């Protein structure tokens, strides 16, 4: 690289990246998702996956679950910046390794292949609560729920067996036990 | 049943409820119903600008000099896009603005209608919050909430986009409820324990420094008084960011000057060598910190700020106190006075050596320059302007560049809200319209825009506004025919390749002033400077002062960015470090 003449500033060494899951409770109003997502893109944060839907129709609250990576300092910033948004009510932040929290993702897999291969696929899916949603002679659509990493692995594994389409929801999270996040 | 009002009427009723006196704006098709209503509200005066960016900056100048939020009214499409620079500027410098924009009727939204743009989409990243009002029933609530969001916590701009049909639609008006809780973000979360820790750190420090920022100004004039009391009580040296100037008197002996890229030698060295750094209402901006890894390496750091997201964003601190600056310092003073009465004297003894060191740094006279009797030196011009205006309550705005730094270095501010400059965004063209807004807020005070000839041409059209409202603003141009800061960087860092930084065919500013209907004054030798400045001050009306200065002067001292505080480039007076070495050059 040529030596910078009037470089604005020299980037300093980067810390270790952690994967975190943010759960954000927001008012379900026009543009709220754009505010949250715009915050991430505008400040250069990562989004690995995003899941959002209204969870309380009377109070008009949506729950957004975002999987992201960053240094501890960046993760801290994401949380504080999210809290500053006007329609945001509360923000929970979990480490992926956190044992007290359940993370799940659902995926729909379409496999187009001969019967034998399809059966092999279904066998592979067994430990991920497979539900067959559609079946023909040449194809099957199966729903599985699993961790993000597991689905990553599965889709790699099933490719040779005729996996043609994958649709994933992105991770959602909930704490174990009787407690709720306040 | 209560009376029904049109959307336009509701807008004004809300503005009246919020005691708004001035709005800065520019009419257009999509805001005509609001403009139509203007005549029925005599307490609200509209200032017609010449460009929407000018409206935004004028509202910023108004807000920063008065402590009240600024209100802007623009039309849809180009009206809204023109105000984006000012909104971003206000966002970066935490200035409370309420921008009302017209929008095409709701049924036309999304059809690429005439003068339609996605205003809330465009302004989402440059406002604290924005609203598109699609239902007349929401309008009064949104208007009240907008003022609340803009003025509470860390202040900032908000925008309300009102489609034209909503301005015509009728509904009843919901009055502002004073104690209403609107999804409120809580401030002042600090605890007594944190104040105890702060006092503990203060009592142990041997080489302390206080570093204050715009947060002190935003906390209100009372905060500056409290700060003065606090600083005198504990006897620490104090430095300030660009935005914080005026919170502590600039001519006080405890004040060691501005810090950062063009800060004083003593302030930057104190930052580097200190053992306790107390940041009050500042945000560790990159122009302040220099190289992060080597920023104030030996110090315990305390950060007092109202915005939790400012804490640990750039610099990790040892003690964070989230709260309103005034409240935090007040409780610290209270505690010092109550419990640790001895601290006062023991402290001053402990840090006397530190003060000796600071005095040594001061003898470098890092703001010094070689004056001339042939050419006007820009620093000299600012110094003379200060000397000739310091006996009256003067408000200074600036554009962006070398002149801005010289103004910050050589003009001494003794009160808050007297210094309006674009720091975060660095918007050339800020100063002239800002001066318009300041003069509106303070009609009888002296308002001067210390300008550069390149910056001021970006919003020169607002002279017409100044003339229309008879605002006696003084535009003091340090004319060096260059984009000075660009030229300086090119000279020092890009082998004197002055690529596109020289302005050929500059206008004759005296004639330009006359064309606008104001007074033009030109000065080009040091002997006549004082008389001409006095002439400018004495003239009752707007003036453009064309001060021809040495075009080759550079702004020193300077920390090349990417360098720590103790590696400053000093001015030509300092012979040892006259030149930047090859290594330093590559790191700027």
Query: How many strand segments of chain A?
Result: 9
**Largest sheet entry of chain B:** 6 strands, parallel
- The helix/strand class of chain B is alpha/beta
Q: Report how far the terminal alpha carbons of chain B are from each other.
A: 68 Å
User: What's the tally of helices of chain B?
Assistant: 25
Largest interface: A-B, 27 and 31 residues
Residue-averaged pLDDT of chain B, rounded?
93
Structural class of chain A: alpha+beta
Describe the overall structure.
The complex is a heterodimer of chains A (182) and B (588). With 182 residues, chain A is of the alpha+beta class. Chain A is built from four helices and nine strands, in the order βαββαββαββαββ. Chain A has helices at 32-42, 72-84, 115-125, 148-158, and strands at residues 18-27, 49-56, 61-70, 88-95, 101-112, 131-135, 139-146, 163-168, 172-175. The termini of chain A are far apart. The model of chain A has no long low-confidence stretch (mean pLDDT 92). Helices cover 39% and strands 16% of the residues of chain B. In chain B, strands 3-2-4-5-7-6 form a six-stranded parallel β-sheet, sandwiched between helices. Chain B has a six-stranded parallel β-sheet with strand order 11-10-9-12-13-14, with helices on both faces. Classes of the chains: A alpha+beta (182), B alpha/beta (588). At the A-B interface, helix 1 and helix 2 of A face helix 25 of B.
């Amino acid at each position: 690289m040529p030596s910078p003449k009037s470089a604005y500033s020299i980037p300093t060494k980067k810390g270790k990246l952690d994967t975190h899951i943010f759960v954000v409770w927001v008012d379900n109003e026009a543009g709220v998702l754009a505010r949250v997502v715009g915050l991430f893109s505008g400040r250069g944060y990562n989004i690995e996956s995003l899941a959002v839907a209204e969870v309380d129709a009377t109070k008009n609250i949506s729950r957004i679950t975002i999987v992201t990576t960053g240094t501890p300092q960046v993760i801290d910033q994401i949380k504080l910046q999210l809290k500053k948004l006007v329609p945001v009510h509360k923000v929970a932040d979990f480490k992926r390794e956190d044992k007290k929290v359940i993370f799940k993702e659902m995926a729909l897999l379409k496999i187009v292949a001969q019967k034998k291969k399809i059966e092999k696929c279904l066998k592979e899916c067994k430990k991920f609560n497979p539900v067959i949603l559609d079946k023909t002679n040449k194809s099957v659509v199966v729903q599985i729920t699993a961790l993000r990493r597991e689905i990553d692995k599965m889709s790699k594994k099933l490719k040779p067996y005729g996996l043609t389409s994958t649709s994933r929801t992105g991770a959602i999270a909930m704490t174990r036990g009787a407690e709720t996040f306040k | 049943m209560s009376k029904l009002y049109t959307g336009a009427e509701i807008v004004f009723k809300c503005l009246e409820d919020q005691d708004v006196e001035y709005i800065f704006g520019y009419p257009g098709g999509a805001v005509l119903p609001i403009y139509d209503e203007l005549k029925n509200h005599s307490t609200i005066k509209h200032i017609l600008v010449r460009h929407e960016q000018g409206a935004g900056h004028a509202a910023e100048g108004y807000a920063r000099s008065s402590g009240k939020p600024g209100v802007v009214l623009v039309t849809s499409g180009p009206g809204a896009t023109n105000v984006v620079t000012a909104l971003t500027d206000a966002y970066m410098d935490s200035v409370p603005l309420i921008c009302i924009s017209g929008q095409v009727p709701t049924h036309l939204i999304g059809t690429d209608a005439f003068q339609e743009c996605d205003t809330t989409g465009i302004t989402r990243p440059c406002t604290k919050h924005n609203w598109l009002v699609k239902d007349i029933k929401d309008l009064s609530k949104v208007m009240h909430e907008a003022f609340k969001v803009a003025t509470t916590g860390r202040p900032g701009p908000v925008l309300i986009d009102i489609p034209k049909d909503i301005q015509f639609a009728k509904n009843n008006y919901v009055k502002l409820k004073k104690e209403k809780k609107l999804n409120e973000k809580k401030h002042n979360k600090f605890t007594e324990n944190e104040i105890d820790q702060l006092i503990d750190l203060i009592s142990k420090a041997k080489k302390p420094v206080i570093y204050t920022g715009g947060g002190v100004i935003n906390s209100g004039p009372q905060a500056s008084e409290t700060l003065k009391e606090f600083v005198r009580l504990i006897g620490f040296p104090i430095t300030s960011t660009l935005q914080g100037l005026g919170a502590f008197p600039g001519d006080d002996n405890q004040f060691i000057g501005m810090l950062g890229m063009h800060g004083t030698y003593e302030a930057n060295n104190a930052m580097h060598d200190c053992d306790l750094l107390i940041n009050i209402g500042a945000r560790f901006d990159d122009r302040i910190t220099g190289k992060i890894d080597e920023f104030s390496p030996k110090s315990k750091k305390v950060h007092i700020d109202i915005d939790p997201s400012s804490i640990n964003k750039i610099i990790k601190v040892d003690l964070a106190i989230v709260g309103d600056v005034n409240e935090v310092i007040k409780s610290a003073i209270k505690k010092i006075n109550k419990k640790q009465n001895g601290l006062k004297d023991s402290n001053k003894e402990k840090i006397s050596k530190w003060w000796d060191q600071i005095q040594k740094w001061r003898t470098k006279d890092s703001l010094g320059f070689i004056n001339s009797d042939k050419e006007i030196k820009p620093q000299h011009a600012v110094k003379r302007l200060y000397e000739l205006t310091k006996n009256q309550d003067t408000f200074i705005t600036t554009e962006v560049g070398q002149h801005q730094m010289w103004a910050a270095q050589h003009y001494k501010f003794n009160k808050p809200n007297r210094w309006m400059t674009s720091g975060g965004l660095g918007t050339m063209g800020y100063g002239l319209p800002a001066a318009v807004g300041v003069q509106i807020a303070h009609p009888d005070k002296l308002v001067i825009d210390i300008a550069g000839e390149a910056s001021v041409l970006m919003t020169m059209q607002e002279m017409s506004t100044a003339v229309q409202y008879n605002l006696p603003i003084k535009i003091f141009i340090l004319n060096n025919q260059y984009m000075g800061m660009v030229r300086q960087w090119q000279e020092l860092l890009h082998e004197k390749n002055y690529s596109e930084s020289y302005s050929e065919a500059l206008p004759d500013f005296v004639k330009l002033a006359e064309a606008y209907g104001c007074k033009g004054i030109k000065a080009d030798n040091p002997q006549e400077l004082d008389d001409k400045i006095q002439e400018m001050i004495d003239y009752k009306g707007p003036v453009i002062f064309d001060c021809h200065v040495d075009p080759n002067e550079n702004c020193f001292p300077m920390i090349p960015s990417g360098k720590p505080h103790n590696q400053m480039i000093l001015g030509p007076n300092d012979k040892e470090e006259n030149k930047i070495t090859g290594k330093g050059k590559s790191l700027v």
